[in-house]
């Protein structure tokens, strides 16, 4: 029988083809394995972006409803979760511009657990604060906090949150009168604080010398202050602490005129009159299509220990844990809910006139944090007497907040709203 001539050659060609196919298969598998994680990352990124937009739409819609109703995602209802892996969001000693009034670790506080609590809404997650993302969204814009020292506290927090991501040569801070300015030069961003503790004019308007025995307010005068923030793209207002007295002395006329009329008026009524002046100014002067407006609700002070199971003479001094036993819906007796309703009414009235002001309702989430005040661990602007040294509760600051701390959560919520706003107006 005749033997096929090409059997060996065919076998060799078959072997070579099998090897080539095997190598091609290996190459395909290699490229597939390399490409797969990239594709998955892209899918995850697209999903996160889509859900982020949806999530914060839900959050804003939820906050627009009555706070007492159940809503899908209310950013202001939740709990504090201990998270010492991710928090604090910055280190106190690395925040170059932090005011000594809020630098508790610097002034001797040893227990730092207050820095490790994260605010967790019940029905959603806050976005992780990203300084670069915020600065990009604020590029070419001006953000201004207007109000009292609690708004200064929040301004310091936001400056600390962003400044570590900016090179030293590209940032600056300056104080000119009532205006405190932080600039991120590369981004052309200005983050400001304007001292105006009652929003309208008062005899407490000096940025340093404002602790006077008698408080006088011009409830119908705001222009002297307002001209400093008319051009802002984002304005965050507050006013609360400086109204806490039974009556306010109201002036019709100017401080310079001998013909001014003075009258003592119930605090709540004078507060209402001042917010009417504020809201009228906003309606006339604010660019509704460009300016974002926020109002921060009252920040609680922890002055009565009997509210959390100790003596009435005890305050936040030596407190190292938050309030757990009160459950949800806890309000301190010192918190003036009538003042909150006046603010809510003013905001609703503005809404009916076509101007949106978003309430940042930080009151109740802050009520639980008796552990997070400076207490005695801050720079004292007035010399402490021997009697006070014997009784530290007498000079403990239970109104302001250590940083890092509670105001960082306020700014995380503000950040969520800014993300939401920029996403809506970019699409």
TrEMBL record:
Intracellular or extracellular location(s): Membrane
Membrane topology: Single-pass membrane protein
Positions of the Trichome birefringence-like N-terminal domain: 72-125
Domain Trichome birefringence-like C-terminal: 126-416
Keywords assigned by UniProt, alphabetized: Membrane, Signal-anchor, Transmembrane, Transmembrane helix
Residue intervals passing through the bilayer: 30-48
GO-annotated cellular components: membrane
InterPro entries: TBL, TBL_C, TBL_N
Coiled-coil region(s): none
Location, primary (coarse class): membrane
Similarity field: Belongs to the PC-esterase family. TBL subfamily.
Listed PANTHER family: PROTEIN TRICHOME BIREFRINGENCE-LIKE 34, PROTEIN TRICHOME BIREFRINGENCE-LIKE 9-RELATED
Record-given protein name: Protein trichome birefringence-like 34
Organism: Abeliophyllum distichum
């Amino acid at each position: 029988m005749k033997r096929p001539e090409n059997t060996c050659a065919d076998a060799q060609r078959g072997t070579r083809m099998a090897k080539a196919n095997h190598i091609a298969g290996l190459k395909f598998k290699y490229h597939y394995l390399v490409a797969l994680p990239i594709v998955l990352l892209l899918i995850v990124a697209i999903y996160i972006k889509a859900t982020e937009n949806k999530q914060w739409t839900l959050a804003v819609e939820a906050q627009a409803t009555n706070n007492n109703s159940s809503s899908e995602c209310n950013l202001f209802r939740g709990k504090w979760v201990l998270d010492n892996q991710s928090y604090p969001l910055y280190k106190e000693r690395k925040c170059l511009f932090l005011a000594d009034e809020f630098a508790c670790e610097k002034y001797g506080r040893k227990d730092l657990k207050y820095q490790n609590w994260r605010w967790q809404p019940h029905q959603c997650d806050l976005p992780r604060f990203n300084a670069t993302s915020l600065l990009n969204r604020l590029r070419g814009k001006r953000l201004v906090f207007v109000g009292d020292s609690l708004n200064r506290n929040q301004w310091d927090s936001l400056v600390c949150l962003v400044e570590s991501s900016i090179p030293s040569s590209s940032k600056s801070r300056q104080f000119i009168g009532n205006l405190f300015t932080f600039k991120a030069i590369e981004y052309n961003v200005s983050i400001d604080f304007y001292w105006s503790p009652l929003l309208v004019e008062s005899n407490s308007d000096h940025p340093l010398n404002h602790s006077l025995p008698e408080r006088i307010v011009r409830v119908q005068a705001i222009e002297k202050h307002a001209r400093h923030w008319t051009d802002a793209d984002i304005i965050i207002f507050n006013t609360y602490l400086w109204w806490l007295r039974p009556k306010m002395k109201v002036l019709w006329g100017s401080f310079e005129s001998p013909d001014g009329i003075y009258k003592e008026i119930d605090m709540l009524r004078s507060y209402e009159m001042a917010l009417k002046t504020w809201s009228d100014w906003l309606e006339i002067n604010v660019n509704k299509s460009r300016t974002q407006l926020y109002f921060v609700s009252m920040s609680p002070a922890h002055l009565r220990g009997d509210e959390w199971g100790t003596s009435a003479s005890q305050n936040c001094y030596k407190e190292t844990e938050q309030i757990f036993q009160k459950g949800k819906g806890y309000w301190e007796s010192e918190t003036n809910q009538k003042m909150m309703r006046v603010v809510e009414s003013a905001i609703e009235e503005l809404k009916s006139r076509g101007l949106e002001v978003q309430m940042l309702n930080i009151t109740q989430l802050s009520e639980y944090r008796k552990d997070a005040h400076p207490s005695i661990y801050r720079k004292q602007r007035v010399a402490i007497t021997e009697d006070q040294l014997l009784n530290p509760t007498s000079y403990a600051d239970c109104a302001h907040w250590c940083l890092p701390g509670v105001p960082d959560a306020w700014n995380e919520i503000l950040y969520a709203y800014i993300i939401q706003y920029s996403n809506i107006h970019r699409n």
